[in-house]
DNA sequence: GCGACAG
DNA sequence: ATCTTGTCGC
C-alpha cells in the first residue's frame, strides 16, 4: 500500500511536540470506516542487537473470522529513543516500512499503544492513522494518562478514561480475571466502535488476535 | 519542585 | 521493549 509522509523523523522533542500539536487538529474521532469491514490488521514492534535495530511486524486477518491472511516484517536502525509521550516517533517509521510491503489494505488497524489517550491527544494510533489514512484504534496494555473507576472483573466490562474533564478513552476488560486494556480512538473510529472491534478481536485472550500475531513476528527469533 | 510515565 | 524458569491458578 502507498504511504503519504507528512514530515521527517529526525527531530528534537520540541519539534516533535510542534508536529503533534499541529497534526492533532486533523484527527477524526467519529466513524469513517469502510463497509463492510473485511480485514483488520495488527502492528507491533520488537528490537534486535541491543535495541539498535527496530523490527516492525504487520499481520492482516479476515474479519470477523480472524483468519490470518498476510504478514510483513521490516527492519531499520532505531533512530529515536523511548520517551513517554513520543512513542510514535520511535516506532512509526519501521511500521510504515512493513505496511508498504502489504498487498491487502486493511480496513482497520489495531495499534500497540494509545490513541487520543495521550497528554497532547496524539498517541501512536493517531499518528499512524493520519499518515496512512486508515481507521486506527489505540490498544494499550498500560496507562499513560487519565483516571478511571475500577473495572468489574467480567469480560466486556469497561469504564471511561478521563483527563482534565474530558473523555479520552475506556478501560476495557477483554478477559475475565486479567488486567484491562486501555482503548482510545486513533483516527476515524469512535470510542464506542473501538470497544466493539476490540471485543470482537479478543475471542480468547486478553490481547487482540491481530496484536498477538504481530507480536510473535516482531519479537520471536 | 515532586511524581508519573504507552513501548 | 528486553533480560528469563519455574510456578501459581483456572
SSE map:
Layout: H1 13-23, E1 39-48, E2 53-62, E3 68-77, H2 87-100, E4 108-112, H3 124-132, E5 136-140, E6 158-163, E7 166-172, E8 181-187, H4 191-200, H5 209-219
Parallel strand pairs: 1-4, 4-5
Antiparallel strand pairs: 1-2, 2-3, 5-8, 6-7, 7-8
Helix pairs in contact: 2-3
The chain binds 2 DNA strands through residues 44-47, 50-51, 82-85, 87, 90-91, 112-114, 117-119, 123-124, 138, 140-145, 177, 182, 219.
Please give a quick description of this structure.
GO terms for molecular function: deoxyribonuclease V activity; magnesium ion binding; RNA endonuclease activity producing 5'-phosphomonoesters, hydrolytic mechanism; single-stranded RNA binding. With 221 residues, the chain is an alpha+beta fold. It contains five helices and eight strands, in the order H-E-E-E-H-E-H-E-E-E-E-H-H.
Description:
The mean pLDDT is 96. The chain has helices spanning 13-23, 87-100, 124-132, 191-200, 209-219; strands at 39-48, 53-62, 68-77, 108-112, 136-140, 158-163, 166-172, 181-187. The chain has an 8-stranded mixed sheet with strand order 3-2-1-4-5-8-7-6, with helices on both faces. Helix 2 packs parallel to helix 3. It has 221 residues and is an alpha+beta fold. The two termini are 27 Å apart. It has a single domain, classed as archaeoglobus fulgidus dsm 4304 superfamily (archaeoglobus fulgidus dsm 4304 fold, 2-Layer Sandwich). The protein is built from 5 helices and 8 strands; from the N terminus they run αβββαβαββββαα. The longest helix has 14 residues, at 87-100. Strand 2 (53-62) and strand 3 (68-77) form a beta hairpin. The protein binds 2 DNA strands through residues 44-47, 50-51, 82-85, 87, 90-91, 112-114, 117-119, 123-124, 138, 140-145, 177, 182, 219.
Amino acid at each position: 500500500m502507498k504511504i503519504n509522509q507528512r514530515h521527517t523523523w529526525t527531530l528534537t522533542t520540541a519539534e516533535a511536540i510542534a508536529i503533534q500539536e499541529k497534526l492533532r487538529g486533523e484527527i477524526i474521532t467519529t466513524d469513517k470506516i469502510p463497509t463492510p469491514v473485511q480485514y483488520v490488521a495488527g502492528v507491533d514492534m520488537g528490537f534486535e542487537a541491543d535495541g539498535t535495530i527496530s523490527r516492525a511486524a504487520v499481520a492482516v486477518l479476515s474479519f470477523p473470522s480472524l483468519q490470518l491472511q498476510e504478514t510483513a516484517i521490516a527492519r531499520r536502525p532505531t533512530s529515536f529513543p523511548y520517551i513517554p509521550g513520543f512513542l510514535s516517533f520511535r516506532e512509526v517509521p519501521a511500521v510504515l516500512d512493513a505496511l508498504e510491503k502489504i498487498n491487502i489494505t486493511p480496513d482497520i488497524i489495531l495499534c500497540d499503544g494509545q490513541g487520543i489517550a495521550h497528554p497532547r491527544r496524539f498517541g501512536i494510533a493517531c499518528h499512524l492513522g493520519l499518515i496512512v489514512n486508515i481507521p486506527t484504534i489505540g490498544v494499550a496494555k498500560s496507562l499513560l494518562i487519565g483516571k478511571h473507576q475500577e473495572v468489574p472483573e467480567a469480560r466486556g466490562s469497561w469504564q471511561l478514561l478521563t483527563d482534565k474533564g474530558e473523555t479520552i478513552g475506556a478501560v476495557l476488560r477483554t478477559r475475565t480475571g486479567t488486567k484491562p486494556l486501555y482503548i482510545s480512538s486513533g483516527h476515524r473510529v469512535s470510542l464506542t466502535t473501538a470497544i466493539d472491534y476490540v471485543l470482537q478481536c479478543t475471542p480468547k485472550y486478553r490481547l487482540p488476535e491481530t496484536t498477538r500475531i504481530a507480536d510473535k513476528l516482531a519479537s520471536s527469533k
